[in-house]
């Protein structure tokens, strides 16, 4: 592929997509929208929401697009920003292993704002499928060093993917979409140094807002590059691996759709997915062997090199920081706390007894252990090894945690997640489920 073809090729691929023809892709899109809705309602009362609402209300604007769980509307731009934050507030939203980040928390808030502004939900689910496709391919082609250098893929890749999703929904021309991709790429940002703070979930909102703005700019005819992804000064060269992108980015488009294979990872825990392997392992050990904090001497957590890159906190001080700490997750389980409870992962200080236990938990990296071929993400595993005070040693290895593709949640599981997020409001849950199943997006917008 010529180095000048990535941007135009992406626009062509998006515009020629026909995801609605795939029964599997549409089914997975409905599951993704359902899980996004559950995660968003679970996060609707996060402390950061009120702060952003105050900013929005102070700014003013025409109330057009819904704010999830708030009973209010705002401008489309404000809606995209706040709904992105709400969806990602608890880190309870889906992830995709190709993205190494969170696609739905960016793509769906952008599409909600677009659909509300146009009063047209046509092509919504198809656009979502396209957005996931773009974001997964960006994540695959950007190269592993992008994330390892400190970029947060949800923010850096999300705006381009969401702009392509809106572009599909609104049927942008080739020229408009090429420029929209460039406008979104110019706004790409997000740093992993923000993990464990309110800024981390705001990356999703900013990316959704940037995507909406990128499309609006393109539709006005505003001038911009048509080759923003290409060449030595383009997106892939600046942020990642141009050579890899040229060979992988557009190959075998939609065959199968990335929302189907490898698919979205729907979470059962409200914390970083990199700690889910360990969470499953320690829960298994607690149940099987009656292990508790008082019976243990020390814990070893074994990763492949780099397998804990997202787990930036070793001695967190708040539950919010604890979302990115395998030490905190294990300590909670050993102290009898329920890992599915979002209340343990808010911005309150961590209890002193748990804080004092964290130094007993040690990370180990072993490049000699062979990953399981079915591991999710590919090449990953976590082994939790518990050394009891009486000399006994127990361990558990998890290659594919609950919720990940290959060990995924059923539609009924996700409906239960929504029920819990709505605190038993069965009527609202039923209305949302029906709207999603019938792909009635205007009804869906009226109920969120």
From TrEMBL:
Pfam families in the record:
MmgE_PrpD_C, MmgE_PrpD_N
What SUPFAM superfamilies does the database record attribute to this sequence?
2-methylcitrate dehydratase PrpD
Read off the InterPro entries from this record.
MmgE/PrpD_sf, MmgE/PrpD_sf_1, MmgE/PrpD_sf_2, MmgE_PrpD, MmgE_PrpD_C, MmgE_PrpD_N
The MmgE/PrpD N-terminal domain is annotated at: 12-243
Domain of life of the organism encoding this protein: Bacteria
Per UniProt, residues of the MmgE/PrpD C-terminal domain are: 269-423
Similarity annotation: Belongs to the PrpD family.
The name of this protein is Catabolic enzyme
Supply the source organism for this entry. Answer: Bacillus atrophaeus (strain 1942)
